[in-house]
Amino acid sequence: MRTPEWSREYRGELLGALAVAVATAVTWGAWLGWDREIQVFWPTGEVTGPFVAWQVIGCVLCLIAITVVGALMLPPWIPPIALTVTFTAGWTWWVASTDYGFGLWLGGAPLVFVVMAIGSTLISAVTRAVAKSLSRLSARTRREGLRR
User: Fold this and answer.
1) In the chain, what are the domain boundaries?
2) pTM check: above 0.85
């Protein structure tokens, strides 16, 4: 039995979306998903955590890289969707399973979703615009080089 033509066409996009989702889940787990420790500064009683700046910065940089690579290899709407859904699901599961979630994850999950959606969509759009601009510049440079 032959595979329908549309199935072959979308197979690459589906695998690409899956790759973005897996890379996002690995990023979540590697940078943030393992840390459940709250830090208390005893002299003042100030409570911070569980994440520290280097973890969040590393996670954000990896998510930017995943979005950029995904936007260059896939239709630009796929990486933001896969990244947003996967990261929000990981964060929601993690915070809902902690002792100190206090039910705030119900409000935090939509916030994480919106921030991830806006951020990854902007990065994807800018990546595609820059790639398109560089492609035009390269084509123009080649044409001018052939004229000489």
Assistant:
1) 5-147
2) no
